[in-house]
Amino acid sequence: MNPSSAESAKRGISFIVNGEAKKVLAHPMERLLDVLRNNLGLTGAKEGCGEGECGSCAVLLDDMLVNSCLIPIAQANGASVVTIEGMSAHSLMKPLQESFLECGGAQCGICTPGMILAAAHLLDKKLDPTLADIREGLAGNLCRCTGYMQIFEAVAKAARRRVTQ
Amino acid sequence: MRADPADYRLVSPGNLLGALSLLASEPAQWLPIAGGTDVMVLYSAGKLTNRNLIDIWNIPELRQIEVFPDRISIGAACTYTVLRQHEIVSREFSLLATAASWTGGIANQNRGTLGGNIANASPAADSLPALLVYDAVLTLISVRGERRVPYRTFHTGYKQTILAADELILNISLPRRFSKYFSHARKVGARNAQAISKVCLAALGQVANGAIRDVRLALGSVAPVPLRLNETEKMLTGKEIEPSLIDAARKSVLKEIRPIDDIRSTARYRSAVACNLVTEFLAKLAAEGAAA
Amino acid sequence: MTVRHIIGASVPRKEGWDKVTGAARYVDDMALPGMLHGATVRSTIARGKIKQIHFGPGVDWNEYVVVSAKDIPGKNCIALILDDQPCLASEFVNHPEEPILLLAHPDRPKLRKAVEAVSIEYDSLPALHTIEESERQSTIIWGRDNTFKNFLVEKGDVDAIWKKAAHIVEGEYFTGAQEQLYIENNGVIAAFDPKNGVTVWGSLQCPYYVHKALITLFALPEEKVRVVQMETGGAFGGKEEYPSMIAGHAALLAMKSGRPVKIVYDRMEDMAATTKRHPSRTRHRTAVSKDGRILGGEIEFTIDGGAYATLSSVVLSRGTIHAGGAYYWPNVRIRTKAVATNAPPHGAFRGFGAPQSLFAMERHMDRIAQVVGISPVEVRRRNFLKSGQTTTTEQTIKENIDLDRLLKRALELSDYAAKKKRFAEKNKAGTNRKGIGIAAFLHGAGFTGSGERYLNSLVGAEAGADGIVRVLVSSAEFGQGTNTVLCQIAAEALGLPYENVSIAQPDTSVVPNSGPTVASRTAMIVGKLVQSAARGIKETLTKTGLLHEDYSPEQFRAACKEYIATHGALKSYARYEAPPDVFWDDEKYRGEAYAAFAWAVYVAEVTVDLTTYSVTVDDFVALQEVGRVLHPVLAEGQITGGVAQAIGFALYENVVWQDGRMMNNQMTNYIMPASMDLPPIRVFFEENGNVHGAHGAKGIGELPMDGPAPAILNAVEDATGVRFCSIPLLPEDLFEALRPEFNEQAVPSSVRGIA
Fold it and tell me: Using the beta-carbon criterion (under 8 Å), do C612 and B191 form an inter-chain contact?
């Protein structure tokens, strides 16, 4: 009657992570975040809240910014995942990383990978974002250190840098 | 403390029929999961009681938006991002597009779905008042067939709906007859984004010859279900917007809503703000009418 | 050479590249072979006697390692000040979430069911949940009178001034608990082996606090306890004392299991079980002259310490000394106390008591202005402390500070006068009310009173044969910029490029005890010692004739290489020496409370929306005198971050309590302001210098936490005319004050109060 009486079986999940084909054996409800961190050693995505509120676990899933704590691994089967570790090839990465460093956009650093991914996702969609666009684009990423001012500055600077490049 | 994934099953049928067959095969045992922005929060907190989940994220029939001359049909698994970006939705159903922009941050908008918001049936859900005022019609589907139900009849109590155990929401259909209406939406939450609403309003109105020809008001977070203010609407229709009418409307709103004290706010505050939001809308509608 | 002007330049953050690439290693990013995961079984009641512990069915207990208080080899306490807090409750529990048992398992997800399967029977005892309940002493929950600590500060003759007063102004002010909400939860990994003892890697501020606590808990000699700080994802005081607890827990599990054990809290556990800012109540009674001068007064400051003493006495001390604000009090009596309640112990949080008592002082100044009939600007101007005057503890202000000038500049920067006029006009109509408010305040840098003398900090520097100098301190980086600023200071002292200086990972087996990373002391006090230690390296090389003045980095490298080839190692240490003219009397609470104060004037502009009763901060000017600014970008980041947290403290962050338990322990329900909520925070510095700090630096980290809340509430009063005295000030509070007549008769009573 109750189909939940048995433990679920692990199953093979095949996906592309940072451009490389990966196969892991996992329970389908394991969180993408845990698989990235524990199975694949990609610890750039962090758990801050476990409920999709803080954005520290953000990754790109098929080019969409998502909170990896809310993605069951089965839903990543066949998908392409990019974490902060895999962003080095992205054309926006260098301007973003440099401007975060110059402007003081990273303090303790725990929100930084998610923040940078959210910023990259925003700049992918908007060439010349306004301050309002930046504020909205980062609304799902909590930073407790900076008070955001230097992060806004960093994102705006990265956008300008890209335009002039 | 987090849940044990070994205690949960998640099946991805990949097509609609597969999902419906599974739902029908073991009634009430399966919980659909789309973008996971509600289900996974419960799961992570160890509070998800359903142990069997059906993945409906990648079912094509649930992801389409179809535009007809008289209506738009939105697949239940369309995300807030898709809604925000859709030309017709933004132009003709701005209340819905606005509500989509209120929901979480960008990452959650990329995953959260309209159907999920409906099925999750939270009275605080941002998009539901908009569906009420737009006279949304839901198509529910199961192996037994399809049925179309007016959305206003969908919620029967706190987190209670008419959705049968073997049914999915297939799509949400909105008639295209409100584009000429004045529309106003406002959410009051504890912060400007990433917040669960304390009160939210979706409102439509039309003024002709100085009097309200049609008005549609719906509120979130003020009752066990998203609430259409039927009595207040009736009372307002045909009248000229003036201070005494606004006073009467406020009294009527208070009679219709049933807010509570909870961890996020108080019943008194919600009552007052609900009245104020309706007042604000009527003032704007009056100004709009005067300008027209 | 590129070595000039390292001080005052915004050099790249030392660990910055690791942070922006995701390579930085936090404790949860680390795993050890064979590692188990630990979890904590906690009290479900506020106070009671533990009767029985049942290990329920459905769990194979053989798979789990279980630790109780009986397994503790040393003393069952978290050694800190009074040692009254048990590491694991054995007989009684005194607050919800108090740890009772520890469990470990190789598979982290298997812990939840086991924790839930443990059931504990209690005999409940009456519990106290507010300052007032604790004061009433209907039951005694701590010591003889529910009081952890009292202070009395007396200056002049307060009793004689009342009859001279033109006005006697009274006020009562409250501040709520505040969660630090670092984005990285508390976490540690511990390993144990009988030969080497305990090693802990953790997210923490004070490696030697944890070191001391583990020595006591395990009854081990100090060389058998090693504490390593990992990259730390925010702390704000929240990782000052609590890491000793979680480190003790992981280490006990490691000892019993013989395997490394990781404990990383999830957000709900972290928020429910760990420390928060002390709630407070302050009462002012002030004698004021006809023209608005403070003649004297009484201040009563009380904080809720929660169930154990932990750091409450020192938080109280700082709150006490800051209670009189940046003003001259000819006569004053300050009575303060920290009381016990049955909540998890409240603890360190940026500002450390000062934001609480300064909130009261700065709201009270606006009250005085109203009573006297002068402006908020004028009342401050007439009472500012001046060089040569004494503080409430009779510390003479020796530095050259001109608060009048600071105030004038802040008013200009914020366009105060014009806005004030404009808002008064605008507020006559519409559904928004605008207001502008100010706060003037100070923050003492370094440990209070004789604190630095007791700390007796030691700092090292070590040169390698490669000519790279490594700074050796236990001072931790958790975002503020410790690594960068201390390397800048050492580089400047050595005349080397910034890149030629590095800093050791804080590891008690490697670095000396430079004191805890708290109290805005790192740049100023530790920085000064780093400067001395670095100079020591240079002196050694010059004295031995290996190096001459005006050397290049290459010459420095060659000298190091040669020295090391002959002598083995090149190290230099510097120990804190108290300035000879600093006097502090711990008994009378009188004297030089701090070697230096930072001073500030903040201006907040707000809009009160009468439709939603919400307050938005529209503009924020933060002007401060902080001695020398060592790194402009980092310094500005400290101010903007502190102001943002303080805006949260004032308007957003509400801990919902029920019987001593936090009910909204999720980020969804505990609301910190985020990207869409914060105003432009405009930061300005004045740099007067400071003889006690490295290159004239003063402390900076805590200052910005003190002023925003009163400035904002002053602005809200300016906007609405309503005097709010309690924070957080939520829309619900504004509504009740602005619309007391609101009639909700239409709400059926049957549905009210259902959550």
Answer: no
Residue of B nearest to C613 (CA): B273
> Would you call A139 and B106 a contact, using CB atoms and an 8 Å cutoff?
yes
Which positions of chain B have pLDDT values less than 70? 292
Asked whether residue C380 falls in the same domain as residue C490, the answer is: no
Please check whether residue C321 is in contact with residue C353, taking contact to mean a CB–CB distance below 8 angstroms. no
Percent of chain C with pLDDT over 90: 93
Q: If you write DSSP's letter for every residue of C139-184 in order, what string do you get? A: S--STTTSEEEEEEEEES-GGGTGGG-SEEEEEEEEE---B---SS
Q: For C316-331, what is each residue's pLDDT tens digit?
A: 999 999 999 999 999 9
Question: Given this model, what pLDDT does residue C752 score?
Answer: 35
Mean pLDDT calculated for residue range C282-292: 98
The answer on C349 and C436 residing in a single domain is yes
Whether residue C299 is found in the same domain as residue C432: yes
Which residues in chain B touch residue A70, judged by CB atoms under 8 angstroms apart? Answer: 35-37, 40-41, 44, 108, 111
CATH fold group of domain B5-55: 3.30.43
Contact B272/C744, CB-based, under 8 Å? yes
Q: For domain A90-164, is the CATH number 1.10.150.120?
A: yes
Mean pLDDT of chain C: 96
> Residue A6: is its pLDDT beyond 90?
no
Q: Is B220 helix (H, G, I), strand (E, B) or coil?
A: strand
* Confidence class for position C372, pLDDT limits 50, 70, 90: very high
How many angstroms separate the CA atoms of C564 and B174, rounded? Answer: 81
Instruction: Considering only the beta carbons, identify the residue of B4, B190, B264 that sits closest to C109.
Output: B4
Fold of B64-175: 3.30.465
Query: Measured between CB atoms, does A7 come within 8 Å of chain B?
Result: yes
Which residue of C20, C484, C676 is the best one to mutate when testing the A interface, meaning the one whose CB has the most A CBs within 10 A?
A: C20
Instruction: Supply the pLDDT for residue A5.
Output: 44
Element (H, E) at A67: strand A64-67
Nearest partner of A19 among A49, A71, A63, judged by Cα: A63
If asked whether residues C343 and C424 sit together in one domain, one would say: yes
Lowest mean pLDDT among A135-149, B11-25, C717-731, C732-746: C732-746
pLDDT of residue A1: 34
Closest Cα of chain B to C653: distance in Å?
A: 10
pLDDT value of residue A49: 97
Residues 6+ apart with CB under 8 A from C245: C78, C85, C87, C99, C213
Q: Which residues contact C121 (CB under 8 A, 6 or more apart)?
A: C50, C51, C52, C53, C54
The token pair at C328 is 């001259």
Kindly list the residues from chain A whose CB atom is less than 8 angstroms away from the CB atom of residue C479. 107-109, 145
Tally of domains in chain C: 3
The mean pLDDT of C95-110, rounded to a whole number, is 97
> Which residues of chain B neighbour C753 with C-beta distances below 8 Å?
260-261, 267
pLDDT digits (tens, 9 = 90+) for B10-54: 999 999 999 999 999 988 899 999 999 999 999 999 999 999 999
Q: How far is C378 from chain A (nearest CA, A)?
A: 31
Are C563 and C670 contained in the same domain? Answer: no
Superfamily of domain A11-86: Beta-grasp domain (3.10.20.30)
| pLDDT recorded at residue A7 | 63
- Tell me the residue range of the domain where C477 lies: 16-25+457-575
- Helix ranges restricted to H, C373-526: 376-383, 403-414, 416-426, 451-455, 482-494
Pairing of strands B160-161, B168-175: unpaired
Which tokens belong to C380? 């401050």
Element (H, E) at C614: strand C614-625
Which tokens in the block code for residue B192? 């400007």
Contact predicate B45/A51, CB 8 Å: yes
Mean pLDDT along residues A70-96: 95
